[in-house]
Amino acid sequence: MIYWGADEDLTHCKVCTFPRWKPVTKSNSAKRRANVPYKKMFYFPLTPRLQRLYASKATAKHMTWHAEHEMEDEKMCHPSDSPAWKRFSELHTDFADETRNIRLGLCTDGFQPFGSFGKNYSSWPVIVTPYNLPPGMCMKDEFMFLTILVPGPGNPKNHMDIFLQPLIAELNQLWESGIRTYDIQKRQNFQMRAALMWTINDFPAYSMLSGWSTSGRLACPHCMENTEAFTLPESGKQSWFDCHRKFLPTGHHFRRNVTEFRKGKQVRHQFGGVRTGDEVLAEVDGLGFKRAYENDAKATNDELSKGRGWNRKSIFWDLPYWRTNVIRHNLDVMHIEKNVFDNVFNTVLNVPGKTKDTAKSRAELNKICDRPGLAQDEETGRYPKALYALDRDLKKILLEWIQKLKFPDGYVSNLSRCVDLNSLKMMGMKSHDCHVFMQRLLPIALRELLPAEVWEPLTELSIFFRELTATSLKKADLQRLELDIPKILCKLERIFPPSFFDSMEHLPVHLPYEAMMAGPVQYRWMYPFERYLRKLKNKVSNKGRVEGSISSGYLLEETAKFASFYFKDGDPMVPCRMQRNEVCEMDVDDDFDRLNIFKPKGRPVGACRNRYLDDAEYVAARSYILLNCPEIEPYRE
What we know:
By secondary structure, the chain is an alpha+beta fold. The chain is 35% helix and 8% strand. It is built from 21 helices and 14 strands. It has helices at 47-52, 57-60, 65-68, 83-91, 93-96, 160-176, 203-210, 277-287, 297-304, 333-348, 359-368, 392-403, 431-445, 452-468, 475-493, 503-506, 511-518, 527-538, 546-564, 615-628, 633-636; strands spanning 42-43, 75-76, 102-108, 124-130, 145-150, 179-183, 188-192, 194-200, 230-231, 238-239, 329-330, 419-420, 425-426, 473-474. The strands form 5 sheets. Strands 1-5-4-3-8-11 form a 6-stranded mixed sheet, sandwiched between helices. It has a two-stranded antiparallel sheet with strand order 2-14. A two-stranded antiparallel sheet has the order 6-7. The longest helix has 19 residues, at 475-493. It starts with 41 loop residues before the first strand and ends with a helix.
């Protein structure tokens, strides 16, 4: 429990009678001036921060952008263009009629303030961000509000609802009655209300917030009990192999295939669709879960959740509008894409300990599907090399190519540092490195190294993620992606072993639906929040008081940011400081005869060096100029 509201004066836990304060001993009795709690959470009220958005002209004029802009060419470029946003407006017209009401997104994730080699300690901040702002401001650090700081050292897991109680109570108050707020742009008071649209989190945190277990055979929160995952006989792991044919169009020839998928199995049924909020709420209420802060809640909920996907009723159902939200908890594309890339790349490079092509995988392969070419040789006892695996020479060629790659400044980290030519593998790749490699480099890297039947579906998967994460999305394109991704996964199922397909390889089949309902991925993935967590981690100045130092540093920074909005030119749409390679006015090239493509766009990094181009580089430079230089346009016709 937390000691707040009616329980703020209690001295012992009302659930387990554990004392609230640390005992006074002889050694600390003389120094102690106040009671010291065993654990303390930090809560930063959300309402004053939302009110301040209307207190400055720099932000107030942008808070109604979502209602003033119009879609161009039927492209969704903001959550306000999505069906989920419009559906919410249709169901709650009194809320939508006041365009200054605020719609919010919530994210939580844990981080280790001492690093991976330090003390095992995990802090869990809860961050809320408004979606009213235009794309240039939305999801920026200035408008990410740290609301709750859950103390470590342990993971809160299913107890997250206990820490969320003050926030849910404040959100309910903002929804039901709102708060009187002064709008400096219109110079009038109005009753500001707010609503939470959805949560953003990785897959483990998905379970913490939604109450649906994301492990085991029922891990998929869209398929739920209708999943066709099964347990592998040798490794004992859950596999989502052959779970995607039900998403194919009726009559597709993959549905009748009984050899390359599970033996003797044809698929005739269709995916039943995603359940509505009312259906999910009725199911959860029917199970009779107890709240996390009630007596015997853990034992009761553990008993009720046996054999089911649900482990408790989430506190978010206390929000009266939560059941009407089309998307309540987002699947995080960032982590899904990274996990898919890691599985593909480590299996292709056959990295020991990380590849999905193991001895157990080969032993169970022909029990599930018919692939005699990969069976064990009875004479030698060895397994033949698979088509999707590279030999030592090809792996060396690939890694040496990666080591020599050059990228624009800030586009990606230095991948050459991740190459290990001794072990022939990649090490230390960050999520954004995997993002760039998956979408831009994978088709090029494997084009000459893998046979066409392996390279083509991997390239289609790369293009799928590239189109899904575009800054603007069309409904027709998303419908095409929704039809394409089951075919791509089925093609991969014909190549890779069943052990390759865990829940991360299954979840992409649901990503086009969520993008179709909720809009562009950039507003619903973890990249901006992961960068923000890095800033919070850097605020740990006292390792003995982790959360205290974070809260102190955060309040100081937030005060400075909001104060900057009140200066004469304090507009958050204008960068406060120049980037490291931004061009100053004195550095602008004044040579008007020089082609536009050769005019500097930034400062060079490092010392200048002279180098002569070979013939191939001359041809590449000439082609680039002809294709990208606007001065050449009149001569093309």
